[in-house]
Design goal:
The complex is a heterodimer.
Chain A: H1 15-28, E1 30-34, E2 37-41, E3 45-46, H2 47-53, E4 61-65, E5 68-70, E6 75-76, E7 81-86
Parallel strand pairs in A: 1-7
Antiparallel strand pairs in A: 1-2, 3-6, 4-5, 4-7
Chain B: E1 12-14, E2 19-21, H1 23-40, E3 50-53, H2 58-69, E4 75-80, H3 84-101, E5 104-109, H4 110-114, H5 118-124, H6 129-148, E6 152-154, H7 159-171, H8 175-178, E7 184-185, E8 194-196, H9 204-213, H10 230-244, H11 248-262, E9 271-272, E10 279-280, H12 286-293, E11 303-306
Parallel strand pairs in B: 3-4, 3-6, 4-5, 6-8
Antiparallel strand pairs in B: 1-2, 5-11, 7-8, 9-10
């Protein structure tokens, strides 16, 4: 009995290329860290806009980009590592 | 945004002062603000022996760091509440800071005396943990000053803490506390140490920025019992106001400081505890009652870490 291979659509990109493209997209996204959780955003924007997107106040959160404290008008670009620091403590 | 002083890229915007500063100029600005507050309100004199009440958080570790940088050699005190990893991690960060500053830190382990954690103590005496914690901390902080010869107790209360407490006292018209929110609370010779708050005019946001820039390793997690604290609600309201009207918190506190000079303090007749001499309103202080309740005769004692060899 002969075994027949399933039909594979012919693609201009081999699978390895697709992997590289996806990998690049992943690596180029901004990595956001908030309260121990990780998020990703691809669109470049200002820090103030990012704070709005996460519904955070600039009075209660500081923003660290690539290990450096930045102001609200700082322009974020792809590949940036962003971390929000909550400043309010209570009790 | 550019730094107002040097023109380089700014690291923090200070909307209450309508300015922005780079990391170096911000560090200089904040340390000067603390130094000016200390001098203006005569919080610590050069011949004083200060001790800082540290929790492991950004405010207390930063003020400890700043005071030693400004030349006020201050040791530390930590009250270990016995709250699992939170207390353990706090103590580690405090020991690390003590090592960096080459200062001593006195540690009062609640579990060693009471054989239970703060929440278990609170449950037994039917109080909320924050109430029991406050009572024990006030007593222990005073005790270390009296017993170990420190004449000034420094706490890391910042502008936001004071504004939130003032708001709470105003909302409920707590007159007995209303006029006691000064950066300096006078002591009573041999009974009560002087308490001072050099961060009175520094906001929580500024303190977090200072700790980050100065690479102070502080505990980011909150005390698990402070989750529903009323002060957090007041802080949220004040921060909403600050968002639309920068400088509101500072004006609120500065206005209070002007008022407090003319305000009259409401005091009840204070007596001293028959067992330990701590100021109280009866024949025994709350701490001595608590120790009696648990049949504890142990002397309040401290473990000591760090310091000059």
């Amino acid at each position: 009995m002969s075994y027949k291979l399933p039909f594979l659509p012919i693609s201009p990109f081999p699978l390895s290329s697709l992997y590289i493209v996806l990998r690049l997209c992943y690596e180029k996204a901004m990595k956001i860290e908030l309260d121990g959780k990780a998020y990703e955003i691809e669109k470049p924007m200002e820090v103030s806009r990012l704070l709005q997107q996460f519904s955070l106040s600039r009075e209660t959160h500081l923003v660290i980009v690539n290990d450096r404290l930045v102001t609200e008008d700082h322009r974020l670009v792809r590949d940036d590592r962003v971390k929000f620091i909550r400043v309010v403590s209570g009790g | 945004m550019k730094c107002r002083v040097c023109g380089q890229e700014a690291n923090i915007s200070l909307r209450a002062y309508n300015t922005a500063l780079c990391a170096d100029d911000f560090t200089f600005f904040l340390e000067k603000r603390v130094s000016d507050t200390i001098q203006k309100y005569h919080l610590v004199e050069k011949n004083d022996t200060p001790i800082v009440a540290v929790s492991g958080g950004k405010d207390s570790l930063s003020i400890w760091h700043i005071l030693n940088k400004l030349g006020y050699g201050a040791d530390g005190l930590y009250v270990d509440l016995g709250i699992g990893d939170y207390s353990r991690e706090s103590l580690e960060k405090i020991k690390k800071m003590a090592e960096t500053l080459k200062c001593k830190v006195f540690v009062f382990h609640i579990r060693k005396i009471f054989e239970r954690s703060i929440d278990e103590i609170a449950k037994t005496i039917r109080r909320v943990p924050c109430s029991a914690c406050g009572m024990i901390k006030r007593y222990v902080m005073n005790k270390v000053c009296i017993d170990k010869g420190y004449n000034v107790l420094i706490t890391g209360h910042n502008l936001d803490d004071e504004a939130a407490a003032l708001m709470g006292n105003l909302l409920y018209w707590k007159e007995e506390y209303l006029w006691k929110k000064s950066p300096l609370l006078e002591g009573r010779e041999g009974h009560l140490s002087r308490k001072v708050k050099p961060l009175f005019l520094c906001s929580e946001r500024e303190m977090a920025a200072y700790a980050l820039i100065s690479q102070i390793d502080y505990i980011y997690e909150e005390c698990p019992f402070s989750v529903n604290a009323k002060s957090l609600t007041y802080k949220a309201i004040l921060n909403n106001l600050e968002e639309t009207s920068p400088g509101t918190k500072l004006q609120f506190i500065k206005g209070y400081l002007k008022m407090v000079k003319g305000g009259e303090e409401t005091t009840r007749d204070i007596t001293y505890c028959a067992s330990c001499g701590y100021p109280c309103y009866g024949d025994k202080c709350n701490m001595c009652r608590l120790l009696e309740r648990f049949h504890i005769e142990n002397k309040i004692d401290f473990a000591v870490y760090g310091g000059q060899p």
